[in-house]
Amino acid sequence: MADGNTDIVRAKATEVAGLMKTLSHPNRLLIACELMKGELSVSDIEAGSGVRQPVLSRELARLRDEDLVETRRESKAIFYSLKDGRLKQLMEVLCLAFGGMAASGLPPR
User: What's 20's domain CATH number?
Assistant: First the structure.
């Protein structure tokens, strides 16, 4: 790694470590993977991730508190989406590294 890159990483290390700590919980990681599909309702996230409603609510609240997801209310339904483009990039890399396929459904280049 070039010296300039090390300085950049050093400046952002605490922020990156916090993000990784938040994603280190399996349920939050599953939720983020589901949200790679785009905006989803709570029931869609539950169905796709397998995380049950009470736990899902707690984990979504944590992701909201960390400013990683955003919400939109439509009547009684709440829709979630990934807020930060860097999180989308990270999730794409994780899907490629561990699943052999991009979250977009495309094989790696």
Answer: 1.10.10.10
pTM over 0.90: no
What digits encode the pLDDT tens for the residues 70-105? 999 999 999 999 998 888 888 888 888 887 655 555
Choice among 4-8, 19-23, 55-59, 93-97 with the minimum mean pLDDT: 4-8
Please give the Cα distance from 68 to 76 (Å, whole number). Answer: 22
> How far does Cα 30 stand from its chain's mean position?
8
Whether 76 is covered by a domain: the verdict is: yes
| Residue 86: other Cβ atoms inside 10 A | 13
Report the first-to-last Cα separation within the chain, whole angstroms. 23
Query: In this structure, what token pair is assigned to residue 12?
Result: 């952002």
